[in-house]
Amino acid sequence: MWNMGILAAGLGFPLLMTTLGAAMVFCFRGQMNDRVQRCFLGFAAGVMIAASVWSLLLPAIEQGAALGLPGWLPAAGGFGLGVVFLLGLDHLIPHLHAILGVREGLPARLKPTTLLVLAVTIHNIPEGMAVGLCFAMAAQQGMRRAALAGAWALAMGIGIQNFPEGAAVSLPLRGEGMGRGKAFAMGVLSGAVEPVFGTLAVACSGLLVSAMPWLLSFAAGAMLYVVVEELIPEANVNPHSDLGTLSAMAGFVVMMVLDVMLG
């Protein structure tokens, strides 16, 4: 039972940080500065790249080898499936890339504010899966200290980059005239998908333990698709600015340090 409590706390922490970020709408007016937003996007990209390697792909290779498979097989196979999954969502769900001003997905008569929330929601899906799977892996290993610490490191890293993400949703909505309460609620809603998909990932891993390396690499592929397709281009929308690049390096180092220090 206490394992379920740890899982709930791990899945809830990133949502809590999104909620705190969305609450910035009660403290500030107007939209987030573009330079600040690019900085946050770059930081998120760095966190997700490091998390994909240390928290997902390396454990997938180790677990695949432990199951008697070539270590690369579940890592590469699951990775490819994750990319295809996010590619499908990207082409199906209508959404808006805020900084680039590009609409993607199926045609839909939705407000730009709704499209912005959907864009954030899409890239929160693999984050939730990743956190859920890391805690499920820790449970399968009897809540070993190293495995549990690694899961918490990932939850903390994702949570840190979720704080500005929540603000990046609620502040623009407020700047376009939406009420503070509704803008806050939309910011929180964009992050609510994380514990939902985290729980689904845990359920899938519990049904078939041997699927864990495939699921871990699936989440890695999905996260890196978001990084390459969305975060890095938007963080570097100004080709003469190194801000997005340096922020990505900082995010990578922070996630790496968290994983090594806590793991």
How are the SSEs placed, and which strands pair?
Elements: H1 2-22, H2 34-66, H3 72-92, E1 95-97, E2 102-104, H4 112-140, H5 145-175, H6 180-207, H7 212-235, H8 243-262
Structure description:
With 263 residues, the chain is mainly alpha-helical. The protein has one domain (2-262). Helices cover 79% and strands 2% of the residues. The chain is built from 8 helices and 2 strands; from the N terminus they run H-H-H-E-E-H-H-H-H-H. The protein has helices at 2-22, 34-66, 72-92, 112-140, 145-175, 180-207, 212-235, 243-262, and strands spanning 95-97, 102-104. A two-stranded antiparallel sheet has the order 1-2. Strand 1 (95-97) and strand 2 (102-104) form a beta hairpin. Helix 1 (2-22) runs antiparallel to helix 4 (112-140) and helix 5 runs antiparallel to helix 6. It is globular, with a radius of gyration of 18 Å. The two termini are 24 Å apart. The mean pLDDT is 87.
